[in-house]
C-alpha cells in the first residue's frame, strides 16, 4: 500500500468525523480490553511468562544469524526450500516465480501482515495470478479494495451492514432474497464461497507466527481454520515470514503461545495452532508437495544493535493498539501505513524511514498503556521518544514547534530570568481570567482553546509567594510594614 | 532556616525537630505558574508529616517538554540544573506523578553512560518521590487529618500510575479524610488526552480522548474530580467547563490538606 503517514493528521481529522467508523471503533474497546484482562488475571504466572518470553526473544535476536542458518538447515533436511529475500521486491519476485512454476492462476492466502508489508496481492494480480484471501476479515477488505485497519482484526473498522452490502454486490450468483441480517449468515456465506476456492488454487500462502530453528517448523495460529486449509489442500505451501519470527526451540513457542492469544483476543489459545515441517512425507495422508519459506529481511537486520532492536520481539498480538487512546479515537487507516497503533509508530519509521513517518511517533500521549499490556515487554513509548530524538537531531521537527521549544528552554535554563518573566506575566494573565477563572480563547493558545477552556492562573506565582513567606520568617517586623 | 523561630509540627516518626528530614519541594512549572495553592497544600502535608520543607530557588521545570520533543541537549542542561539544586536534600518531592517520574525514572536514563552525571542522577533519583506516595510510602502517613465534605472521583494520571505505581495511595488517604466519599468513574486509569505537547499538536484527537474521559467523570455522579497532576487536571477542567459541567476540579493535595477555600481549577459553576 502507498505510505501516507505524512498525512496522519488529515486522516485522523476525517476519522474523527466518520460516525460509522466511530461506532465500529467502540467495538475495539468492548471486544478486546476486558477479555484480555480476564485471560491475564486467570493465569497467575502471566507476568512471569512475559519475562521469560522477553528473554527468549532477546537471546534469539542476539544470535539471530546462527539461528537463521540452523533453521535453514533443518528446513532443507525436511525437504523444504528456504529463499532469502533482502527486500519486498525480491520477496514478491520469489513468490511469483513459485506460482508460475506451479502453473497456478489463483493462490489462496491465510491471514498475513507480512504479505501486506511487501504488497504481494497487487503484485500477483498485476502478473496474472489472482490472490484469494481466506480469512473472513481479510476476505471482506479484499472485496472492498481496502487494507487491514488492525493487525489481527483487519475489518474491525466495518460494521455488519457494510459487509452485507459488499456480499450482495459481489456474490451475485446467490439468491438476492437471502437473509443476511445475522453475522452467522454472513460467515456461512463466506465459508460457502471460499470453500470452493480451496480446490482451485495450486498454491497456498501463509505467514508465520514463529519459525523454529530446532525443527525447521513454521507455526500459524488462526481461529477460522482457513490457514490449515490454505496450506494443506494446495500442492505448494509458501510461508512468507520476516527473520525476527525465529525462536530457538519448540518449547519456546509453547511459552510465547501462552501469551499470544491471551493478549490478542483474550482466548487461552486460538482455535487452531498449526506446526508445519517440510512438505508431505511418504505415507502422510495429506499435505503440500512442496514447502517453501521466503525469509524476509526488509530492514530488520539494520534494526539489530540499535535502540529499536527490542521492537523485533513483537509477536503482532495487537494489544498495544487495542489499548491505545489514539488508535481507539482514529482507527488504523489514519496511520497511513501497514502497521498501525503504537507498534506501527515504532516499526514503520524503522522500515520506511522517519522522513515521511515522523507524525506516527509524535501522535502519542505517552500514556504508557501499550507498554503496560505488551506481552513481550517492548518499551514502546521509549522507542517513540527515540524517533522524536532522531527527528529533532535531523531538524525534521516542524519549525514552529522547534522554535517554541527553544524559546521555552531559553527561560527554563535561566531560573532568575524565568522568575522575573513569570512574576510579570502570570499575575497579569490571572487578572485577564476574571471572575470565571478561565479563558474561552487566548492569542497563541488556539490549540488548547479550540475544544476546551484554559484555566486562568490563580495570581502571583508560587515562587513569588514563597519568597515573601520566607522573608517574613526571617524578619517578622516586615509584616506590619507590608 | 532558623529552627528556633520556626514552629515545629509534631510527628510520631521524627520527634526530634533537629533531625527532621529535609525535603526539597519541586513545585513543578504548572503549579508555580497556574496553581500555587497546590504548592502550599504540598508544603502543609509534608510539614505535617514531620519534615522540614525547602523550596530551592533555582527551579523552573523538570525538562519533560524538551525530553518528549526529542531535544536531549536542552533536557540534559535542565536536568543538570535540577540535580545541582536539589541533590543536597534528604528527599525531593513533587506534587506530580509526571514530573516525579521524569526525575526518578528518566533522569538516570538520560545520563546513562556519563561517568560524571549518571551516578549523580541515580543518587538523586533514589530520593525523588511524588507527593502522595511520599506521604504514604516513605513517611507512613495514614491520615492527613483533613475534613472536606464532598463526593469525589479520582483520575489516575498515566505517569504516576504506570511509571510510579501510584493507585491505592491517594485513595487510602482520601478515604481517611472526614466527609469524603469516593465514587469511582469507569476507566479511571485511561489517559485524559493531555499528553503534554500532544494536546496542542493534535488538538482534535486530544479532544476525542478527553470527551470520553469527561463522560466517565459525569457518569460517576461525583461532584468533584481529583487527580495528582495539574496538566491532566487543567485539560479535564477545561473540557468540563467548556461543556457546561458543574463538577469542581482540584488537585488531590488540596483536599488532603483540607485547603479547599480557593476557587477550583477553571472556576466553579458553568
From TrEMBL, chain A:
Any one biological process term the GO annotation gives: lactate metabolic process
UniProt entry keywords in alphabetical sequence: 4Fe-4S, Electron transport, Iron, Iron-sulfur, Metal-binding, Repeat, Transport
Record-linked InterPro entries: 4Fe4S_Fe-S-bd (IPR017896), 4Fe4S_Fe_S_CS (IPR017900), FTHF_cligase-like_sf (IPR024185), Helical_ferredxn (IPR009051), LUD_dom (IPR003741), LutB/LldF (IPR004452), LutB_C (IPR024569), NagB/RpiA_transferase-like (IPR037171)
GO molecular function annotation: 4 iron, 4 sulfur cluster binding; metal ion binding
Domain 4Fe-4S ferredoxin-type: 305-335
Protein name per UniProt: Iron-sulfur cluster-binding protein
